[in-house]
Amino acid sequence: MKQIEGGICSVRGVSANGIKAEKMGIAVILAEGPAAGVFTQNKVTAAPVTLSKGVIDTHHRLSAVIVNSGNANAFTGDDGFLDAMEMASMLSENLDLDADTVAVASTGVIGRRLDISKIRELLPEVLAELGSTPECSQAAAKAIMTTDKAIKESAVELDCGVRIGAIAKGSGMIEPNMGTMLCFAYTDAKVPADVLDAALKVAVQKTFNMLVVDGDTSTNDMILLTSTCKSGIKPCMECLDDFQESLIYVFTELVKKMAKDGEGATKLIEARVVGAKKHEDARLAAKAIVRSPLVKTAIFGKDPNWGRIVAAAGYSGAELEQERLSLSLSGGEEKVELVDCGEISESFDLALLKKIMENYEIVITLDLNMGEEHATAWGCDLTYDYIRINAEYTT
């Protein structure tokens, strides 16, 4: 596997484009083939999620995706669903597609009617420049941004020649499962929808569902994975394992970019929990650490208050014994051992810990010393700017 340039447009059979007009953005991705999806678990579900989930569940394939930013089209009742249908219809009529295989996604403010006339006005401009260049992938990725400060895309080529590419948006309202995030992933492997579905669920559980910015679950979360089959390569069993790992890699790259770009974030936090008896124990502890407001604020303040980390693990619900815990922090090339099997480490260097806290990326490693299972979670610090951004979101 190697990283490649071009985002989703590096995948054979994918064309895309997008534009941003003030707070409104429109993106279109054209790619025909088997598809799978994972959607928000919020019981208040946005209209485009309902529509797109129906498309996936019924047809197990997609021909295109149309996305708007600036308005979530959530909690908008029957009118909102009609607007989502209108978006699919507009695209299908312009590109001569079956509207029943067009997915719709939205992101932005909840509870406000979508300005469908603005989408109708901007769509021809998007379609006029639809293409398969790296710039087209970036244009689509930029169009779906809300409070994001950076474009999020990633692509790889497997040793067998298959390619996987994805774009995403998301910097707030993230966790416990995904967040105000959209992700559109593509591959040119010749695989059916059920294989895509299985691979997607595994990859999401190990990546997007291990990301925490603020602990809120959005109404609009959506991840779609489509195969164009254009490589003509039908992966063997061994290559399918590589496909799974490569999909996880692509999503992990996006997760890290989302954590770095968390609303108001100044630091990326990576929590690695090892030595767990069960995988779920490692998962619970890792997410509790990156979710904890006290851990997040300590890291923002560069305060070496490491006791908050073990406290978070302790209330996480994971099976652990404090007498067995070992804890270390690292940043850059520096690492400090804080706890060794339940005892404060004799080599604990407070000055070194303070130096590590200055780093942009902080890695927390907690060893439960109870088994062989492990999990990693990602998050960001909690800052004054997070409060400001969300206090002024609609004003």
Describe the 3D structure.
- This protein is α+β, with helices and mostly antiparallel strands and 395 residues long.
- It folds into two domains: 2-260, L-amino peptidase D-ALA esterase/amidase, CATH 3.60.70; 268-391, Ubiquitin-like (UB roll), CATH 3.10.20.340.
- The chain contains eleven helices and 16 strands.
- Strands 1, 2, 3, 4, 5, 6, 7, 8 and 10 form a nine-stranded mixed beta sheet that branches. A seven-stranded mixed beta sheet has the order 9-16-11-15-12-13-14, with helices on both faces.
- Helix 1 crosses helix 2 (77-95), helix 2 packs parallel to helix 3 and helix 5 (193-206) crosses helix 6.
- The longest helix has 24 residues, at 237-260.
Lay out the secondary structure:
Layout lengths: L1 E2 L11 E7 L2 E16 L7 H13 L1 E11 L5 H19 L6 E8 L6 H13 L5 H10 L8 E6 L5 E7 L12 E6 L5 H14 L4 E2 L9 E6 L9 H24 L7 E9 L2 H13 L1 H8 L6 H9 L10 E6 L2 E7 L2 E2 L5 H7 L4 E7 L5 E8 L3 H8 L4
Helix pairs in contact: 1-2, 2-3, 5-6, 7-9
Number of domains: 2
Structural category is alpha+beta
CATH class of the largest domain: Alpha Beta
CATH architecture of the largest domain: 4-Layer Sandwich
Mean pLDDT: 92
Tell me roughly what share of residues is in helical segments: 25-40%
Count of helical stretches: 11
User: Helix and strand string, N-terminal first?
Assistant: EEEHEHEHHEEEHEEHEHHHEEEHEEH
